[in-house]
Amino acid sequence: MNLTSSLSSANIVLAVAVLAWAIVRQFQTRQIGSLRARTFLILGVIGVWQLAQLADSRGVTPVEALTLAVSLGLAAVFGWLRGRAAAVWIQQGVAYRRGGWPALGLWMAAIATHIAIDVIGSMLEGLRGPSPVSSASIMLYIAVTLGIQGLVVARRAAALADVTAPLRQPVA
Question: How many CB atoms lie within 10 A of CB 62?
């Protein structure tokens, strides 16, 4: 088994687990405090490292680079849309958020779009399966989409907060 196939298999398993975690959290009412960038940073670092490993082992074609850029751009768009779709409110000085069915629909659309971009890129490359770059970039894609969603929700919560009564930080 080479680096490309082992990255692909491991990423698919890890991506399914991370996506399941993220989607389940969409339906939970959660306090909003300071943006918890740790999760996004960890996923982003993993994604960049995996892409770097792949680029070192086999390189990245122009078509793969283009599909990666389009995919990450759409990850940001879907993150923004989910951040806008989430219910955000202030209760006793604490900001809360909850996603719901619109967020789930946007997750499904994002996944379908990511797969479609990968299929188109693979067809253009003459590949018979997923592009190795697409598989190696899954964690970066999730980091971008969750990070943008978190920023949008945090900004919406801050806009709702009374300027004279700052938000209390949730106890971790």
Answer: 9
Separation between Cα atoms, residue 139 and residue 120, nearest integer Å: 20
Rounded CA-CA distance 11/68 in Å is 16
> Is residue 4's pLDDT more than 50?
no
Q: Which of the pair, 7 or 19, is modelled with greater confidence?
A: 19
Tell me what pLDDT residue 170 has. Answer: 53
Tokens of 87: 């219910």
Sign of CA dihedral 113, 117, 122, 123: positive
The DSSP symbol for 95 reads E
The full length of the chain comes to: 172
Residues 145 and 75 sit within 8 Å (Cβ to Cβ): yes
124 half-sphere exposure, CB direction, 13 A CA radius = 13
Looking at per-residue pLDDT, the higher value among 13 and 153 belongs to: 153
Q: How far apart (Å, rounded) are the C-alpha atoms in residues 77 and 65?
A: 19
Q: Which residues, in sequence order, are bridge partners of residue 88?
A: 97
pLDDT for 33 equals 67
Nearest to 104 by CA among 41, 9, 23, 1: 23
Tokens 């405090």: give the residue: 33
What is the helix, strand, coil percentage profile of the chain, to 5?
A: 70, 10, 20
